[in-house]
């Protein structure tokens, strides 16, 4: 099987760099073009990423030496698939331009809330890809746009899904402690005002984030009924904060299940959860998507990377007397990996095995 030619738009930013890490040596995809803004046009990928480096493993030399091309200079028809990691307002225009011709797998929120667009997490809501044909027909596109969830929503829904399936979930309260890289380049660039203010600090507001968590969680956990997506109806309240951590988001979650379960039963439910993405043995999927850590003071963002890629870590699992059938736990989730680049690549893998690429 020849590899699909991929263009990565927004390749120089935080999420884009992670897509590059996941595709640089991918068995099914080959990087055909690295694209970004006019500011990066003509620079080597190494120089264009030097302002804020997010790589865990620096990609191979031939990728670092590729010339970055401004998004307005590329023809989508030269590629089989586009990965987009653009700021939302730019994504709105560029992704539609690409989707006229080829599939676009996106980390941006530009199309997440459109009625004909799935927000895909292959190990949570794989059936939502049935919305793609409707989207194509509505918009007259040869391609389509499939965004992934916001990086904060991903960890939350990954753990809610097995609980919803087994016990039901009525109410969720969540407080996030989100890393600086979640703010993108401005979160890590040394002279960024946002970064300077956030150092040794906690900022108790991330504009628009709590609304995203609410809308996306109920959309992702919704059911396809007669070809239509019916959102879930979980009562969710969240407080999203920025903390002085480089990578990996932490979330404290308190919830009320639909029926009683002990902390031990919930642990077994988390550890036993598998989806079609695991059955398909997709190249980027975690064999066990949720790991309950043994350490009583875990999980911690600093130690998240000690575990396999693309997992959600759970700890502090206990019963919560304040809620009906209450359960509390803490998660860590890598905002750049499962939360952005790795998640986008996993979606592309799932779409490929389903014949959509
Ligand atoms: N960071 C995360 O943890 C995370 C997680 C999930 C989703 N997301 C989403 O992913 C998207 C990218 O976020 P990020 O954090 O990676 O942002 P970022 O670090 O600021 O990177 C933005 C990227 O977009 C490019 N860009 C900016 N303006 C452009 C234009 N006019 N035309 C073409 N390219 C342009 C930049 O290129 P230059 O380098 O040339 O400026 C850069 O490659 C956002 O929609 C964000 O909400 C981010």
Oligomer: single chain
Q: Can you list the strand order of the major beta sheet?
A: 8-11-7-12-15-14-13
Counted by DSSP, the helix tally is 13
Distance between the amino and carboxyl termini: 13 Å
Label the overall shape.
globular
Q: Tell me the series of helices and strands, N- to C-terminal.
A: EHEHHEEHEHEHEHHEHEEEEHHEHEEH
CA radius of gyration: 19 Å
Helix content: 25-40%
Poorly predicted runs are none
CATH class label of the largest domain: Alpha Beta
Q: In terms of structural class, how would the helical and strand content be classed?
A: alpha/beta
For the largest beta-sheet, the strand count, sense and barrel status come to: 7 strands, mixed
**CATH topology group of the largest domain:** Dihydrodipicolinate Reductase, domain 2
> Which ligands are bound?
NADP nicotinamide-adenine-dinucleotide phosphate
| Beta-strand content | 15-25%
DSSP summary, beta strand count: 15
Mean pLDDT: 97
Kindly give the count of domains: 2
